[in-house]
């Protein structure tokens, strides 16, 4: 039997109507992480009804992973991986988050794209192979896990129980892109301990909430590539472009560690969770040390506060093995089904996600890939708007290139130092990082006016951080280049 004949025989076993209806069924079941029992039962029951050998693998409490297998003849094994849990219910719904409504070919529900639709598709694929009577060379299994949104609780438990495969496919939503790399998601609890005071007295205390704000101010813009000149140290590779970056996902502040409300009192405690999307090869302990160094610099200026930092959670980074069977197979299948070549690689923004792929790779399952469903058309339109805005910003940077003589000023050596100090005072600049000496050009910050500046001589570039803006001053040999961030310029005529 040819490959096409086998594929046709398997596809004939799938009822699209049944698949859609089961997807709507699980969409109606709330499964916020920690509360996956009901949805687990639904998957377990349905997989057994479809004829797939299925078992419940215990995790903790009444939680369990659902694991189904179609046995092969001893060759290389394949595991599909998907999570049943979702994040918390969110604001902004215009339809019932648990209605499972079908409208214009789309199913609406909390967690449908991430990733209940993928889960049901994998269930029906496995069942179709079984029903078609296809004898596989190796085992094909499906792991539907709990707690992915809580750091990969289910897949970690699965790995501890010794479950393995030679190749895996994780079907997180990638908009049908094939992802071979994603970030190492590192979470840190940061506590700031200030000192209370009162609005109506001479002693206003030390505001812990404002110290948390200062920390994020020093860390720089969220959701943007931090770059090699930032606070975080990392070993870069071309395919890591866009990493690392960070996000403040949770913050609470108030009086005492209970964060009680006291509108007239200065809050003496603030706690937050920083999520750093690091390069896959960056150790989490190293990132924590980098954040601690920023906090130590804050204490040098203002020793009146204390801080605590600890690792809160992690989702391992993923990087597909060279010559990955999973990547090749996913590419081939995509081309056969859709009639065109897929996008394969470290594709943004999907490479900034977290998944259970890193946990599987950490125990030796090195051959894997990620590919998952599209989102709805409104999300696609929103992504296209973001791309257009990004392209507009790039064009603006090109228009304001410094090598068109914008911002070039010639000074005596003494004036160079005065000019540096002047700009520090003018813009309230606080942090000064000495960069390594380079010849013939300075790599100016990615969000600055230019990418490179030709100066023709050795120079000692100075880079300042101004809150969420950056200012670079490259001085040497009686020349100083002042590179203003675009947010502070406004008009070319204002440059000196």
Could you explain the architecture of this structure?
The chain is α+β, with helices and mostly antiparallel strands. It has three domains: 3-182 and 317-386, Aminopeptidase; 184-315, Alpha-Beta Plaits; 399-494, no CATH class. It is 31% helix and 24% strand. It contains twelve helices and 23 strands. The chain has helices at 3-11, 16-27, 37-49, 112-132, 153-160, 208-219, 284-301, 325-338, 357-362, 377-399, 413-426, 486-489; strands at residues 53-58, 64-70, 78-83, 101-103, 106-108, 140-145, 167-170, 178-179, 181-182, 184-193, 245-254, 269-278, 306-315, 318-319, 344-345, 367-370, 408-410, 431-434, 441-443, 452-454, 460-466, 469-476, 479-483. Strands 1-2-6-3-7-16 form a six-stranded mixed beta sheet, with helices on both faces. Strands 17-23-22-21-18 form a five-stranded antiparallel beta sheet, with helices on one face. Helix 2 (16-27) packs antiparallel against helix 4 (112-132).
Short description:
Helix 2 runs antiparallel to helix 4 and helix 6 (about 210-220) packs across helix 7 (about 285-300). The protein has helices at about 5-10, 15-25, 35-50, 110-130, 155-160, 210-220, 285-300, 325-340, 355-360, 375-400, 415-425, 485-490; strands spanning about 55-60, 65-70, 80-85, 100-105, 105-110, 140-145, 165-170, 180, 180, 185-195, 245-255, 270-280, 305-315, 320, 345, 365-370, 410, 430-435, 440-445, 450-455, 460-465, 470-475, 480-485. The strands form 7 sheets. It has a 6-stranded mixed sheet, with helices on both faces.
């Amino acid at each position: 039997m040819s490959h096409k004949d086998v594929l046709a025989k398997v596809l004939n076993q799938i009822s699209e109507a049944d698949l859609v209806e089961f997807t709507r069924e699980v969409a109606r079941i709330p499964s916020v992480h920690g509360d996956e029992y009901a949805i687990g039962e639904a998957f377990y029951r349905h997989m057994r009804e479809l004829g797939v050998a299925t078992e419940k693998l215990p995790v903790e409490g009444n939680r369990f992973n659902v694991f189904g297998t179609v046995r092969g003849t001893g060759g290389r094994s394949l595991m599909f991986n998907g999570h049943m849990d979702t994040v918390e219910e969110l604001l902004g719904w215009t339809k019932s988050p648990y209605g499972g409504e079908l409208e214009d070919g789309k199913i609406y529900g909390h967690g449908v794209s991430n990733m209940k639709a993928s889960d049901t598709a994998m269930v029906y694929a496995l069942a179709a192979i079984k029903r078609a009577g296809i004898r596989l060379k190796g085992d094909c299994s499906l792991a539907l896990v709990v707690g992915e949104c809580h750091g990969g609780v289910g897949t970690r438990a699965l790995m501890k129980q010794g479950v393995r495969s030679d190749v895996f496919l994780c079907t997180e939503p990638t908009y049908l892109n094939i992802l071979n790399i994603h970030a190492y998601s590192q979470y840190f609890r940061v506590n700031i301990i200030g000192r209370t005071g009162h609005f109506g007295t001479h002693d206003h205390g030390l505001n812990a909430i404002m110290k948390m704000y200062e920390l994020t101010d020093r860390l720089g813009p969220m959701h943007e590539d931090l770059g090699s000149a930032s606070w975080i140290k990392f070993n870069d590779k071309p395919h890591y472009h866009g990493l690392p970056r960070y996000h403040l996902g949770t913050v609470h502040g108030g009086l005492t560690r209970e964060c009680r409300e006291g509108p007239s009192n200065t809050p003496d405690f603030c706690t937050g969770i920083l999520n750093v999307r690091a390069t896959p090869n960056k150790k989490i302990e190293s990132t924590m040390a980098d954040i601690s160094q920023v906090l130590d610099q804050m204490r040098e200026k203002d020793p009146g506060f204390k801080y605590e930092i600890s690792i809160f959670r992690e989702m391992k980074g993923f990087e597909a093995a060279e010559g990955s069977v999973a990547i090749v197979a996913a590419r081939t299948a995509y081309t056969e089904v859709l009639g065109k070549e897929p996008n394969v690689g470290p594709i943004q923004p999907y490479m900034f996600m977290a998944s259970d792929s890193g946990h599987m790779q950490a125990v030796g399952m090195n051959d894997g890939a990620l590919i998952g469903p599209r989102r709805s058309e409104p999300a696609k339109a929103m992504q296209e708007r973001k791309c257009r805005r990004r392209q507009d910003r790039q064009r603006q940077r090109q228009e304001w290139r410094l090598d068109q003589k914008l911002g070039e000023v010639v000074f005596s050596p003494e004036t160079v130092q005065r000019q540096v100090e002047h700009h520090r005072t003018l813009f309230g600049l606080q942090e000064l990082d000495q960069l390594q000496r380079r010849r013939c050009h300075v790599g100016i910050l990615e969000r600055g006016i230019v990418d490179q500046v030709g100066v023709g001589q050795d120079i000692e570039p100075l880079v300042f951080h101004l809150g969420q803006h950056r200012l670079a001053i490259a001085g040497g040999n009686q020349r100083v280049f002042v590179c203003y961030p675009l947010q502070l310029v406004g008009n070319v005529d204002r440059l000196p």
